[in-house]
């Protein structure tokens, strides 16, 4: 999971609560930045988990960190007997990753990594709330991500932007258009997820012409980053398109959910 996040963000926020861990990137979409929200249930990753937040009613911790550093530290833990992660304050706040490696003798070998982190004060916590699912025009399941990745990698050599369009009949096209070339890849029979709105009816997409395409042009590098970093192997992958405004990707694995918001280009 952390390898995927390291591909998507140079720095991110780690939010710790009693039951969950969140990795958050909140570049302002309005300013053309992507945002990301990744949620993990701690019970599926840790045998023991103890944390104390700022106060009983705000039992959370928000840290700023470089995911690549955490990813490197965890690479040494691949054959480990045990891994401990704790927040320390030696010379500065650090996430300490202590890796107990198998040893031939009776004494254990422990490798320790101290990863500098910034502690985010409570007054800024509201900047890191879960983004709401936009009121989309079309929601569609994605094709096999490996296939999509190879298509996007070829297109990346021809254009800096890509148009994603889809309809409610399970059809999706990836298109690039330049002065010299126009390329479209068609996907069919992908299926459209059923979304219930708050009043229990089908979502806003109801009443829309099933064949009508919703489209958004996005930065091809941002899409490629998402596909290239995919090590989560999602059991479900879908995307919601708000025409000409935003593409919202959701990747779901048993105990991990990753949301990635890419704003449309003008």
Summarize the structure in short.
With 266 residues, this protein is mainly beta.
Tell me what the structure shows.
The chain has 266 residues and is mainly β. The chain has four helices and 16 strands. The strands form three sheets. Strands 8-4-1-2-3-16-15-14-9 form a nine-stranded antiparallel sheet. A four-stranded antiparallel sheet has the order 12-11-10-13. Strands 5-6-7 form a three-stranded antiparallel sheet, with helices on one face. Strand 10 (161-166) and strand 11 form a beta hairpin. It is elongated. Mean pLDDT is 84; it is low at 198-202.
Task: Record keyword descriptors for this entry.
266 residues, mainly beta, 4-stranded antiparallel β-sheet, 4 helices, 14% helix
Q: Share of helix among residues?
A: 10-25%
Number of helices: 4
**Number of beta-strand segments:** 16
Extract low-pLDDT stretches: 198-202
End-to-end distance, in Å? 32 Å
Going across the major beta sheet, what is the strand order? Answer: 8-4-1-2-3-16-15-14-9
- Report the major sheet: 9 strands, antiparallel
What is the approximate shape? elongated
Strand content of the residues, in percent?
35-45%
**Mean of the pLDDT scores?**
84
Q: Find the structural class using helix and strand composition.
A: mainly beta
Task: Please tell me how large the radius of gyration is.
Answer: 21 Å
**Helix and strand run:** HEEEEHEEEEEHEEEEHEEE
């Amino acid at each position: 999971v952390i390898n995927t996040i390291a591909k998507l963000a140079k720095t991110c926020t780690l939010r710790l609560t009693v039951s969950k861990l969140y990795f958050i990137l909140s570049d302002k979409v309005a300013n053309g930045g992507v945002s990301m929200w990744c949620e993990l249930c701690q019970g599926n990753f840790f045998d023991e988990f103890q944390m104390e937040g700022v106060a009983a009613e705000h039992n959370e911790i928000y840290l700023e960190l470089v995911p690549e550093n955490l990813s490197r530290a965890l690479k040494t833990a691949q054959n480990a007997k045990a891994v401990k992660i704790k927040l320390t304050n030696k010379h500065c706040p650090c996430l300490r990753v202590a890796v107990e490696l198998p040893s031939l003798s009776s004494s254990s070998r422990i490798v320790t990594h101290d990863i500098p982190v910034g502690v985010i004060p409570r007054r800024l916590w509201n900047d890191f709330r879960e983004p709401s699912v936009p009121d989309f025009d079309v929601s569609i399941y994605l094709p096999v991500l490996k296939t999509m990745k190879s298509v996007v990698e070829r297109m990346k050599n021809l254009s800096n932007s890509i148009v994603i369009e889809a309809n409610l009949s399970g059809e999706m096209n990836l298109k690039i258009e330049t002065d010299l070339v126009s390329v479209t890849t068609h996907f069919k029979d992908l299926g459209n997820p059923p979304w219930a709105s708050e009043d229990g009816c089908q979502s806003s997409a109801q009443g829309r012409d099933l064949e009508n395409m919703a489209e958004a042009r996005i930065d091809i590098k941002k899409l490629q980053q998402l596909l290239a970093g995919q090590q989560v192997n999602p059991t479900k992958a879908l995307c919601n398109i708000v025409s000409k405004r935003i593409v919202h990707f959701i990747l779901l694995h048993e105990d991990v959910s990753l949301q990635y918001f890419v704003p449309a280009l003008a």
